[in-house]
Amino acid sequence: MEHEAQRLPTPRGPLSAAVVDCLRASGPAPGPESVADAAPYGDDLQLALYLCYELHYRGFAGVAPEREWDPEVLRARAALERCFLSALRADAPVHDSVEDAVADLLVEPVDGAGVSHFLRDEGELWHLREYAAQRSLYHLKEADPHAWVLPRLRGRAKAAMAAVEFDEFGGGRADRVHARLFADLMTDLGLDTTYGHYLEEASAEALATVNMMSLFGLHRALRGALVGHFAAVEITSSPGSRRLAEAMRRTGAGPAAEHFYDEHVEADAVHEQVVRHEVIAGLLEDEPQLARDVAFGIDATSLVEDRLADRLLSDWRAGRSSLRSRATSDISHIS
Questions:
Q1: CB-based contacts of 90, cutoff 8 Å, min separation 6
Q2: Which helix (H) or strand (E) segment is 213 a member of?
Q3: pTM of this prediction?
Q4: CA proximity to 218, closest of 4, 8, 72, 50
Q5: Contact predicate 140/4, CB 8 Å
Q6: Cα 193 to Cα 127, 141, 156, 219, 252, distances in angstroms
Q7: N or C, which terminus of the chain has less Cβ within 10 Å?
Q8: Nearest to residue 213, comparing CAs of 38, 39, 57?
Q9: Which value, to the nearest 10 degrees, does the dihedral of the CA atoms of residues 41, 42, 46, 47 take?
Protein backbone atom coordinates (compact mmCIF):
# COMPACT_ATOMS: atom_id res chain seq x y z
CA MET A 1 0.00 0.00 0.00
CA GLU A 2 1.67 3.17 -1.23
CA HIS A 3 1.74 6.28 0.96
CA GLU A 4 2.82 9.00 -1.43
CA ALA A 5 0.76 12.19 -1.22
CA GLN A 6 -2.16 12.13 -3.63
CA ARG A 7 -2.55 14.79 -6.29
CA LEU A 8 -5.52 17.08 -6.47
CA PRO A 9 -7.98 15.61 -8.99
CA THR A 10 -9.55 17.13 -12.08
CA PRO A 11 -12.58 19.23 -11.05
CA ARG A 12 -16.05 18.05 -12.07
CA GLY A 13 -17.78 21.44 -12.07
CA PRO A 14 -17.63 24.96 -10.63
CA LEU A 15 -17.81 23.94 -6.96
CA SER A 16 -14.98 21.42 -7.10
CA ALA A 17 -12.99 23.76 -9.36
CA ALA A 18 -13.31 26.53 -6.77
CA VAL A 19 -12.23 24.19 -3.96
CA VAL A 20 -9.20 23.05 -5.98
CA ASP A 21 -8.27 26.69 -6.71
CA CYS A 22 -8.67 27.57 -3.04
CA LEU A 23 -6.45 24.69 -1.92
CA ARG A 24 -3.85 25.80 -4.46
CA ALA A 25 -4.16 29.36 -3.12
CA SER A 26 -5.13 30.57 -6.59
CA GLY A 27 -8.75 31.56 -5.96
CA PRO A 28 -11.54 31.84 -3.38
CA ALA A 29 -13.51 28.91 -2.02
CA PRO A 30 -17.12 28.57 -3.19
CA GLY A 31 -19.57 30.70 -1.22
CA PRO A 32 -22.95 29.56 0.18
CA GLU A 33 -24.81 31.20 -2.70
CA SER A 34 -23.01 29.02 -5.25
CA VAL A 35 -23.88 25.85 -3.33
CA ALA A 36 -27.58 26.54 -2.84
CA ASP A 37 -28.74 25.18 -6.20
CA ALA A 38 -26.18 22.38 -6.54
CA ALA A 39 -27.26 18.76 -7.04
CA PRO A 40 -26.62 17.24 -3.59
CA TYR A 41 -25.63 13.81 -4.94
CA GLY A 42 -23.92 15.09 -8.10
CA ASP A 43 -20.30 14.74 -9.12
CA ASP A 44 -19.45 18.39 -8.52
CA LEU A 45 -20.70 18.75 -4.96
CA GLN A 46 -19.57 15.28 -3.88
CA LEU A 47 -16.04 15.83 -5.17
CA ALA A 48 -15.87 19.30 -3.60
CA LEU A 49 -16.95 17.88 -0.25
CA TYR A 50 -14.56 14.92 -0.55
CA LEU A 51 -11.66 17.33 -1.11
CA CYS A 52 -12.57 19.31 2.00
CA TYR A 53 -12.84 16.15 4.10
CA GLU A 54 -9.62 14.63 2.79
CA LEU A 55 -7.70 17.45 4.48
CA HIS A 56 -8.59 15.69 7.76
CA TYR A 57 -7.10 12.41 6.54
CA ARG A 58 -3.87 12.55 4.49
CA GLY A 59 -4.25 15.74 2.48
CA PHE A 60 -2.91 16.43 -0.98
CA ALA A 61 0.48 17.07 -2.55
CA GLY A 62 1.20 20.79 -2.69
CA VAL A 63 -1.52 21.72 -0.18
CA ALA A 64 -0.25 23.13 3.11
CA PRO A 65 -1.31 21.10 6.19
CA GLU A 66 -2.61 24.33 7.73
CA ARG A 67 -5.46 24.40 5.21
CA GLU A 68 -7.16 21.67 7.25
CA TRP A 69 -8.44 24.36 9.64
CA ASP A 70 -8.52 27.31 7.26
CA PRO A 71 -11.70 29.32 8.04
CA GLU A 72 -12.41 29.89 4.33
CA VAL A 73 -12.27 26.16 3.59
CA LEU A 74 -14.38 25.36 6.64
CA ARG A 75 -17.06 27.87 5.59
CA ALA A 76 -17.23 26.28 2.15
CA ARG A 77 -17.35 22.82 3.66
CA ALA A 78 -20.21 23.85 5.96
CA ALA A 79 -22.26 25.07 2.99
CA LEU A 80 -21.61 21.84 1.09
CA GLU A 81 -22.52 19.79 4.16
CA ARG A 82 -25.80 21.61 4.65
CA CYS A 83 -26.83 20.76 1.10
CA PHE A 84 -25.84 17.10 1.42
CA LEU A 85 -27.27 16.59 4.91
CA SER A 86 -30.58 18.23 3.98
CA ALA A 87 -30.90 15.84 1.04
CA LEU A 88 -30.10 12.82 3.21
CA ARG A 89 -32.72 13.84 5.77
CA ALA A 90 -35.31 14.43 3.06
CA ASP A 91 -34.62 11.28 1.02
CA ALA A 92 -33.67 8.57 3.52
CA PRO A 93 -36.39 6.04 4.32
CA VAL A 94 -37.89 6.72 7.74
CA HIS A 95 -38.17 4.14 10.51
CA ASP A 96 -40.22 4.91 13.60
CA SER A 97 -37.68 3.34 15.92
CA VAL A 98 -34.14 2.01 16.11
CA GLU A 99 -35.59 -1.45 16.74
CA ASP A 100 -37.55 -1.36 13.49
CA ALA A 101 -34.56 -0.06 11.53
CA VAL A 102 -32.29 -2.80 12.88
CA ALA A 103 -34.94 -5.47 12.35
CA ASP A 104 -35.14 -4.61 8.65
CA LEU A 105 -31.36 -4.93 8.34
CA LEU A 106 -31.44 -8.39 9.90
CA VAL A 107 -33.80 -9.76 7.24
CA GLU A 108 -32.09 -10.96 4.07
CA PRO A 109 -34.43 -10.91 1.03
CA VAL A 110 -35.18 -14.39 -0.36
CA ASP A 111 -34.43 -13.29 -3.93
CA GLY A 112 -31.51 -10.93 -3.41
CA ALA A 113 -30.58 -8.76 -6.34
CA GLY A 114 -27.84 -6.53 -4.96
CA VAL A 115 -24.25 -5.99 -6.04
CA SER A 116 -22.85 -8.88 -3.99
CA HIS A 117 -25.46 -11.24 -5.50
CA PHE A 118 -24.56 -10.09 -9.01
CA LEU A 119 -20.83 -10.49 -8.40
CA ARG A 120 -21.29 -13.93 -6.83
CA ASP A 121 -23.58 -15.29 -9.54
CA GLU A 122 -22.45 -13.71 -12.79
CA GLY A 123 -19.74 -11.14 -12.19
CA GLU A 124 -16.57 -11.31 -14.27
CA LEU A 125 -13.11 -10.38 -13.11
CA TRP A 126 -13.42 -6.87 -14.53
CA HIS A 127 -16.57 -6.30 -12.46
CA LEU A 128 -14.69 -7.29 -9.31
CA ARG A 129 -11.79 -5.01 -10.21
CA GLU A 130 -14.11 -2.06 -10.78
CA TYR A 131 -15.91 -2.74 -7.52
CA ALA A 132 -12.60 -2.80 -5.65
CA ALA A 133 -11.44 0.41 -7.35
CA GLN A 134 -14.66 2.23 -6.37
CA ARG A 135 -14.56 0.92 -2.81
CA SER A 136 -10.86 1.64 -2.36
CA LEU A 137 -11.61 5.27 -1.46
CA TYR A 138 -12.97 3.96 1.82
CA HIS A 139 -11.27 0.62 2.34
CA LEU A 140 -7.75 2.06 2.16
CA LYS A 141 -8.71 4.11 5.23
CA GLU A 142 -11.11 1.55 6.66
CA ALA A 143 -12.36 2.38 10.18
CA ASP A 144 -10.73 5.83 10.22
CA PRO A 145 -14.00 7.84 9.91
CA HIS A 146 -15.56 5.77 12.69
CA ALA A 147 -12.69 6.45 15.09
CA TRP A 148 -13.79 10.08 15.35
CA VAL A 149 -16.86 9.04 17.34
CA LEU A 150 -14.86 7.55 20.22
CA PRO A 151 -14.27 10.83 22.12
CA ARG A 152 -18.02 11.55 21.79
CA LEU A 153 -19.14 8.31 23.52
CA ARG A 154 -19.15 7.21 27.14
CA GLY A 155 -19.28 4.01 29.17
CA ARG A 156 -20.53 0.82 27.48
CA ALA A 157 -20.85 2.41 24.07
CA LYS A 158 -17.30 3.76 24.13
CA ALA A 159 -15.74 0.52 25.40
CA ALA A 160 -17.59 -1.63 22.85
CA MET A 161 -16.90 0.73 19.94
CA ALA A 162 -13.20 0.77 20.85
CA ALA A 163 -13.16 -3.04 20.93
CA VAL A 164 -14.61 -3.28 17.42
CA GLU A 165 -12.25 -0.60 16.12
CA PHE A 166 -9.30 -2.48 17.66
CA ASP A 167 -10.21 -5.46 15.47
CA GLU A 168 -10.60 -3.22 12.39
CA PHE A 169 -7.10 -1.89 13.02
CA GLY A 170 -5.63 -5.37 13.14
CA GLY A 171 -5.71 -6.10 16.86
CA GLY A 172 -2.28 -4.55 17.25
CA ARG A 173 -0.76 -6.29 14.20
CA ALA A 174 0.09 -4.12 11.21
CA ASP A 175 -0.26 -7.00 8.75
CA ARG A 176 -3.87 -7.56 9.88
CA VAL A 177 -5.09 -3.96 9.62
CA HIS A 178 -8.12 -4.16 7.35
CA ALA A 179 -6.84 -1.37 5.11
CA ARG A 180 -3.69 -3.45 4.62
CA LEU A 181 -5.75 -6.54 3.80
CA PHE A 182 -7.71 -4.55 1.21
CA ALA A 183 -4.48 -3.36 -0.38
CA ASP A 184 -3.44 -7.01 -0.65
CA LEU A 185 -6.79 -7.74 -2.32
CA MET A 186 -6.12 -4.96 -4.81
CA THR A 187 -2.69 -6.41 -5.56
CA ASP A 188 -4.29 -9.78 -6.36
CA LEU A 189 -6.65 -7.98 -8.73
CA GLY A 190 -3.83 -6.12 -10.47
CA LEU A 191 -4.91 -2.72 -9.14
CA ASP A 192 -2.79 0.21 -7.98
CA THR A 193 -2.73 0.31 -4.18
CA THR A 194 -1.67 3.95 -3.89
CA TYR A 195 -3.96 5.76 -1.48
CA GLY A 196 -6.54 7.78 -3.42
CA HIS A 197 -5.35 6.49 -6.80
CA TYR A 198 -8.89 5.85 -8.08
CA LEU A 199 -10.39 9.16 -7.00
CA GLU A 200 -10.50 10.32 -10.62
CA GLU A 201 -12.40 7.17 -11.60
CA ALA A 202 -14.85 6.99 -8.69
CA SER A 203 -18.50 7.78 -9.29
CA ALA A 204 -20.41 10.43 -7.36
CA GLU A 205 -22.35 7.60 -5.71
CA ALA A 206 -19.12 6.06 -4.37
CA LEU A 207 -17.93 9.45 -3.12
CA ALA A 208 -21.22 9.94 -1.29
CA THR A 209 -20.78 6.73 0.73
CA VAL A 210 -17.41 7.96 2.00
CA ASN A 211 -18.51 11.56 2.48
CA MET A 212 -21.42 10.47 4.65
CA MET A 213 -19.05 8.69 7.02
CA SER A 214 -16.84 11.76 7.28
CA LEU A 215 -19.86 14.02 7.77
CA PHE A 216 -21.20 11.94 10.64
CA GLY A 217 -17.78 11.33 12.16
CA LEU A 218 -16.60 14.95 12.19
CA HIS A 219 -19.70 16.37 13.89
CA ARG A 220 -20.32 15.67 17.57
CA ALA A 221 -23.99 16.52 17.01
CA LEU A 222 -24.21 13.59 14.55
CA ARG A 223 -22.66 10.97 16.85
CA GLY A 224 -25.93 9.05 16.97
CA ALA A 225 -26.08 8.96 13.17
CA LEU A 226 -22.50 7.68 13.04
CA VAL A 227 -23.39 4.84 15.42
CA GLY A 228 -26.42 4.04 13.26
CA HIS A 229 -24.29 4.03 10.14
CA PHE A 230 -21.71 1.78 11.78
CA ALA A 231 -24.44 -0.62 12.88
CA ALA A 232 -25.81 -0.80 9.34
CA VAL A 233 -22.36 -1.59 7.96
CA GLU A 234 -21.58 -4.28 10.52
CA ILE A 235 -25.00 -5.95 10.40
CA THR A 236 -25.02 -6.27 6.62
CA SER A 237 -21.32 -7.00 6.18
CA SER A 238 -21.12 -10.69 7.03
CA PRO A 239 -23.66 -12.09 4.51
CA GLY A 240 -22.47 -9.66 1.81
CA SER A 241 -18.85 -10.56 2.45
CA ARG A 242 -19.65 -14.25 2.16
CA ARG A 243 -21.08 -13.69 -1.31
CA LEU A 244 -18.09 -11.56 -2.31
CA ALA A 245 -15.67 -14.21 -1.07
CA GLU A 246 -17.50 -16.74 -3.25
CA ALA A 247 -17.21 -14.35 -6.20
CA MET A 248 -13.47 -14.03 -5.65
CA ARG A 249 -13.08 -17.82 -5.53
CA ARG A 250 -15.24 -18.44 -8.59
CA THR A 251 -13.27 -15.96 -10.72
CA GLY A 252 -9.85 -17.01 -9.43
CA ALA A 253 -9.13 -13.52 -8.11
CA GLY A 254 -6.43 -14.76 -5.73
CA PRO A 255 -5.88 -15.81 -2.11
CA ALA A 256 -5.58 -12.29 -0.67
CA ALA A 257 -8.77 -11.24 -2.45
CA GLU A 258 -10.58 -14.21 -0.95
CA HIS A 259 -9.05 -13.64 2.49
CA PHE A 260 -10.24 -10.03 2.79
CA TYR A 261 -13.88 -11.05 2.55
CA ASP A 262 -13.45 -14.32 4.47
CA GLU A 263 -12.02 -12.23 7.31
CA HIS A 264 -15.07 -9.97 7.26
CA VAL A 265 -17.50 -12.90 7.30
CA GLU A 266 -16.06 -14.08 10.61
CA ALA A 267 -15.17 -10.76 12.23
CA ASP A 268 -18.32 -8.87 11.34
CA ALA A 269 -20.62 -11.64 12.54
CA VAL A 270 -19.15 -10.95 16.00
CA HIS A 271 -19.04 -7.18 15.51
CA GLU A 272 -22.73 -7.11 14.61
CA GLN A 273 -23.65 -8.52 18.02
CA VAL A 274 -21.35 -6.13 19.87
CA VAL A 275 -22.64 -3.09 17.97
CA ARG A 276 -26.29 -3.99 18.52
CA HIS A 277 -26.14 -5.05 22.15
CA GLU A 278 -23.37 -2.84 23.49
CA VAL A 279 -22.72 0.18 21.26
CA ILE A 280 -26.32 1.05 20.37
CA ALA A 281 -27.82 -0.17 23.63
CA GLY A 282 -25.13 1.57 25.67
CA LEU A 283 -25.51 4.83 23.77
CA LEU A 284 -29.29 4.90 24.11
CA GLU A 285 -29.13 3.92 27.76
CA ASP A 286 -26.86 6.92 28.29
CA GLU A 287 -28.48 9.31 25.79
CA PRO A 288 -31.99 8.08 24.87
CA GLN A 289 -32.70 11.31 22.99
CA LEU A 290 -30.34 10.11 20.23
CA ALA A 291 -32.63 7.26 19.15
CA ARG A 292 -33.98 9.21 16.18
CA ASP A 293 -30.43 10.03 15.05
CA VAL A 294 -29.36 6.37 15.26
CA ALA A 295 -32.31 5.37 13.09
CA PHE A 296 -31.48 8.17 10.67
CA GLY A 297 -27.90 6.91 10.38
CA ILE A 298 -29.16 3.44 9.49
CA ASP A 299 -31.64 4.78 6.96
CA ALA A 300 -29.17 7.21 5.34
CA THR A 301 -26.69 4.37 4.93
CA SER A 302 -29.31 2.32 3.11
CA LEU A 303 -30.03 5.29 0.86
CA VAL A 304 -26.45 5.97 -0.28
CA GLU A 305 -25.61 2.27 -0.61
CA ASP A 306 -28.72 1.67 -2.71
CA ARG A 307 -27.80 4.60 -4.95
CA LEU A 308 -24.32 3.15 -5.49
CA ALA A 309 -25.74 -0.32 -6.15
CA ASP A 310 -28.18 1.07 -8.71
CA ARG A 311 -25.34 2.89 -10.48
CA LEU A 312 -23.07 -0.15 -10.59
CA LEU A 313 -25.74 -2.62 -11.69
CA SER A 314 -27.18 -0.27 -14.30
CA ASP A 315 -23.77 0.17 -15.91
CA TRP A 316 -22.69 -3.45 -15.66
CA ARG A 317 -25.93 -4.90 -17.02
CA ALA A 318 -25.62 -2.54 -19.97
CA GLY A 319 -22.05 -3.77 -20.55
CA ARG A 320 -20.56 -0.43 -19.51
CA SER A 321 -17.77 0.41 -17.12
CA SER A 322 -18.89 2.07 -13.90
CA LEU A 323 -15.69 4.10 -13.73
CA ARG A 324 -15.96 7.70 -14.89
CA SER A 325 -13.04 7.81 -17.30
CA ARG A 326 -13.35 4.21 -18.48
CA ALA A 327 -16.80 4.29 -20.05
CA THR A 328 -15.51 4.10 -23.62
CA SER A 329 -12.20 2.35 -23.00
CA ASP A 330 -11.11 -1.27 -22.63
CA ILE A 331 -13.02 -2.18 -19.46
CA SER A 332 -11.41 -5.59 -19.15
CA HIS A 333 -8.21 -4.12 -17.71
CA ILE A 334 -7.53 -1.40 -15.18
CA SER A 335 -3.98 -0.21 -14.73
A1: none
A2: helix 204-218
A3: 0.94
A4: 50
A5: no
A6: 17, 12, 36, 30, 19
A7: C
A8: 57
A9: 170
